[in-house]
Amino acid sequence: CHNGCPLGNLIPEWNDLVRTDRWRDAIERLHATNNFPEFTGRLCPAPCEGSCVLGINQDPVTIKQVEVEIIDNAFAEGWVVPLPPTKLTGKTVAVVGSGPAGLAAAQQLTRAGHTVTVFERDDRIGGLLRYGIPEFKMEKRHIDRRLDQMRAEGTEFRAGVNVGVDITAAQLRADFDAVVLAGGATARRDLPIPGRELDGIHQAMEFLPWANRVQLGDDVLGDDGEPP
């Protein structure tokens, strides 16, 4: 399972810690390789479970569910707290994009002592976590509570700023010591299959942001009362 995890999560270790009821040690081992297990535990396709040797002759260990239980229990117990740097480096970093990659980079860089600003072109922080994932798959409160931790650590967020339009790349390079490009893959992919032209078929990358905005209470209907 460890080799099947793209993050290299120490799965056997935190599985065993849960087995022995050492939940606080388990979250420390989980956070050692994963900034946001509440995201991956709910969204990852779990190649670790496909690599579980138990699956040779029976059902594999439900690793994803164990991961979710560890992080949700840690939040409930108050163990997930801000970890601000003890010393600042004086260096500034701009992170472009506030999806999972941008957020992970921002948190690691902030904790290393750099002053980090995250730029997001949408009106809310989160990238595809915010607008590309249905609410039933992952509730937005999981994003918000993690953002609260990051703000308390010192990370600054600037939503509604489209880099390349509202601010130039040259400005970023002039204002910051380093720039991390963590833009998401938001371009849709079509399927050239029979029936694609029929009514009622929608692109997920168009529908999901609209549906998520409805869930958030935004007024997203056009003048004709229909979605865009």
Your description of this structure?
This protein is of the alpha/beta class. Among the domains are: 11-77, no CATH class; 92-181, FAD/NAD(P)-binding domain (3-Layer(bba) Sandwich), CATH 3.50.50.60. The chain is built from ten helices and four strands. It has helices at residues 11-19, 23-31, 37-43, 47-50, 63-77, 100-111, 128-131, 141-153, 169-175, 204-215; strands spanning 92-96, 115-120, 156-159, 178-181. Strands 3-2-1-4 form a four-stranded parallel beta sheet, with helices on both faces. Helix 2 packs across helix 5 (63-77). The longest helix has 15 residues, at 63-77.
Write a brief caption for the model.
The protein is α/β, with parallel strands linked by helices.
Which overall shape is indicated by the principal axes computed on the Cα atoms?
globular
The number of helical runs is: 10
CATH class of the domain at 92-181: Alpha Beta
Low-confidence stretches: none
Helix content class:
40-55%
The rounded distance between the terminal residues' Cα atoms is 44 Å
Kindly identify the CATH topology of the domain at 92-181. FAD/NAD(P)-binding domain
Fold blueprint:
Elements: H1 11-19, H2 23-31, H3 37-43, H4 47-50, H5 63-77, E1 92-96, H6 100-111, E2 115-120, H7 128-131, H8 141-153, E3 156-159, H9 169-175, E4 178-181, H10 204-215
Parallel strand pairs: 1-2, 1-4, 2-3
Keywords:
228 residues; single chain; alpha/beta; 8% strand; 4-stranded parallel beta sheet; 4 strands; FAD/NAD(P)-binding domain
